[in-house]
Amino acid sequence: MKLQHGWRAVAAVTLCLGFGVSNAQAQAWPNKPIRWIVPFPAGGPTDSFSRPVAQKLSEALGVPVLIDNRGGAGGGIGVDAVAKSAPDGYTIGLGTTGTHAINPALYSRLAYDPLKDFAPLTLAVSYTNILVINPNLPIKDIGELVAYAKANPGKVTFGSAGNGSSNHLSGELLKSFTKAPMQHVPYKGSAAALTDVMAGNITYMFDILVTSIPQIRAAKVRALAITAPKRSQYILEVPTMAEAGVPGFDTVGGNLWFGMFAPAGTPREVVSKLNAELVKALKQPEVREKMAAQAFDVVGSTPEEMSAVLRSDHQNWGKVVKETGSHID
User: Which pLDDT belongs to residue 69?
Assistant: First the structure.
């Protein structure tokens, strides 16, 4: 009998240990869907970037990665939702130069702190703005644009996607560097501004490559320079702002980017795993092809590198906003 009871005790302990292992395995991350917050509406560049990468991340982790579009307040609503989510690895989100570097200086009150409320995962892609003008103007380069503006006060206008957008601030930065009189005309989106550049209703604008390159090739606009520190692989014939005669422009308002973030406090091992799988996803040939279609340059950095870029751009763009007096509220 004692022997029988002894075996029962061993079996009970073994069963409990088995349940413990099973429970631990059940709690292993990830074991349920991951929410990927895109802080802008569906159909735009941030959404087009997110979906193919999220699909690859889902395949790698073995759980669904669900896109959650939360537009509004210049991306602030969606980004704030990431910041206030549980730091358990089941909510991640896209951040941009705008949401994390420009908005903090642009808005007097912001619901989130871009430097304290997030765990950077990776700098995903970079891209550049390009200065395009109406081709019927007698302007072939930046020097001629500046001279034309100074000789014709009040006649040179530049469009943007709206107050505080990166293309608005790029225009303000050009004014600051050259001291040329140029008038900002805000639009509800870049597409409307580009249409008016082509029509000759405004002089120029800074636009993203994916929408401007087809118009450049069709001679509907003329490209003068890009904002990045080096020439773009997508339009190598166009000089940088420094090459075009505005040295220092790129150190303040150069490359723009999309980055991935988790809420602050997310476990380090989860951050490391997300970083590794996001970088792998970005390197996949089919993902690279889709990024190239949008004129994005794939980066795929470490969390530490993303953090360094964030801190630098937070300071630089904050300075631009302050010096140009660009505020939303």
Answer: 97
Cβ atoms of residues 209 and 235 within 8 Å: yes
To 10 degrees, what angle do helices 209-217 and 190-199 make? 20
Taking each helix axis from N to C end, the angle separating 142-151 and 166-178, rounded to the nearest 10 degrees, works out to 70
- Angle 37-43-44 from CA coordinates, rounded to 5°: 80
Contacts of 196 (CB under 8 A, 6+ apart): 159, 185, 187, 202
Neighbouring C-alpha atoms within 13 Å toward the C-beta of 329: 8
The counts of H helices and E strands in the chain are 13, 11
The tens digit of pLDDT for each residue in 112-162 reads 999 999 999 999 999 999 999 999 999 999 999 999 999 999 899 999 998
CA distances from 218 to 27, 159, 221, 236 (A): 56, 20, 8, 17
Phi and psi angles of residue 297, each rounded to the nearest 5 degrees, phi first: -100, 120
Q: Tell me, what CATH number does 313's domain have?
A: 3.40.190.150
> In angstroms, how far is CA 55 from the centroid of its own chain?
19
Q: How far apart are CA 209 and CA 294, in angstroms?
A: 8
Coil, strand, or helix at residue 181? coil
Which of 231, 253, 275 represents a domain boundary (last residue)?
A: 253
Q: What is the pLDDT of residues 237-248, one digit of tens each?
A: 999 999 999 998
Q: Is residue 20 part of a domain?
A: no
End-to-end CA distance of the chain: 82
> Among 180, 175, 208, which Cα is nearest to 194's?
208
Name the 3-class secondary structure at 95: strand
The verdict on residue 134 lying in a domain is yes
26 pLDDT band, cuts 50/70/90, is: very low
Domain that holds residue 108: 33-126+255-324
Regarding whether 156 and 57 lie in a shared domain, the answer is no
The residue written with tokens 């349940």 in the block is 19
